[in-house]
Amino acid sequence: MTALTLSTAGAATLRADALVVGVAKGPKGPVVAAGAEAVDKAYDGKLAAVLDALGASGAEGETTKLPAPDGLKVPVVLAVGLGPVPEKDESFDEEALRRAAGAAARALHGTKKAAFALPLEDASAVTAVAEGALLGAYAFTAYQGGEKKAGKGGKDADKNGGPKQPLAEVVLLGAKPRDKDHKAAAERASVVATEVNIARDLINTPPNDLTPEAFAAVASATAKEHGIKVQVLDEKALVKGGYGGIMGVGKGSENMPRLVKLSYTHAKAEKTLAFVGKGITYDSGGISLKPAGHNETMKCDMAGAAAVFAAVVAVAKLGLPVNVTGWLALAENMPSGSATKPGDVLRMYSGKTVEVLNTDAEGRLVLGDALTKASEENPDAIVDVATLTGAMVLALGNRTFGIMANDDAFRTSIHEIAEEVGEASWPMPLPADLRKGMESPTADIANMGERMGGGLVAGLFLQEFVGEGITWAHLDIAGPAFHEGAPYGYTPKGGTGSAVRTLVRLAERTATGDLG
Predict the structure, then answer these.
(1) Of 26, 30, 73, which Cα lies nearest the Cα of 50?
(2) pTM, full prediction
(3) Residues 402-424, buried b or exposed e (16+ Cβ, 10 A)?
(4) Are strands 353-355 and 445-446 parallel, antiparallel or unpaired?
(5) Catalytic site residues?
(6) How far apart are the first and last CA of the chain?
(7) Most buried pick, 42, 262, 279, 382, via CB within 10 A?
């Protein structure tokens, strides 16, 4: 993890390998942002003109490297675009700062130490810049590094040099290490970014290594380090307990399913939240096999469980006065002679029977069992997170997750929280008329319904397994969970850690009683 420090040193006096400054997009060209006054002075007040001559505009995410002039104790200055100049008496919004810091950190891969002289008007800005830099500095290199060859003395030497390592240290200039609010903001940002990056690691791990059993082992070991109680149900316990949904999905694989319960409690907690995550460590579609072109990234189908795991650990590390239980429904969906077939009927943990019309609609089956189990503890609210439907991607695109709920006020609160932390989301309905499409002549319900509105149909299916009177929301993160395009802002290629920050902020709001 990239180190984070706060410093009141001046931009012209701190020694580092690079110095990051902000540039806004003005009506007549780039405008140097607050925090970079000393740097502009070192350029004789002509930094904006130099950037303009190089074609820089201050547009969001734009990065321009310059050789540092005399008067600075760094070799390189990196100007990063913040987007449009704010209106009079307004500041850069937190997401603009977060994305700029992330873009700068990505541009500085291979650098040891960088000082960030971006606008820091308050503790919220400190959080945003720190989060953005730490998230932007992420790289998944566990399986890279080139071939090894024997060197002198029998030691291995890296033959191909390996990939550039992420920025090693971030120094926030203008953030005061002795200021209580600034220090707390930086500490929170470090915790949250660390857990988002751990979720990313899990999502990016190849499915031959991250099986349900392996995921459960990682979750168990990490949880115990932070005082989180762990319970793991293996295939024998799942069969004995009647978890027909989870077993129905996982029984076709040689890697058997698991249901993991993570319990964080606080002596002063007055509320309890349950987070439920879909954890399909690889989704081939099962007997309803996915075609080529649709299965190459299906290692990411456990992103919901990764988000839940990371959020529970973050809550524990922050010591929030709220009880949080995480449920990881882990399975591998594979075709074989023992796999569930279209037309089979499963008896879920709730006792409800489900006719399986499509084995590639498996996430709702594992979630159904986990939601019923979570409901038994009667939490104040349940939130499930899942890469559930391609229909949600068609509706909202690749960067926005959908929110459904059985309570409009709760759905609105989660939407506001997600937007606050910089996670694009949109509230979606649960139209009652779509329930009819899941009627089955054989079972209580089918796992498929009308094709149009498929994301909403999936939400209606899940609602069937939520305990009566329990507030519930469903986050379909199928779009933003795995980014296949070029990196942008603090978002890398591959696993993104979508929904972790939303869940953590929900826990914070619940702990303080500040949930609308």
Answers:
(1) 30
(2) 0.96
(3) bbbbbeeebbebbbebbeebbbb
(4) parallel
(5) 290, 364
(6) 34
(7) 279
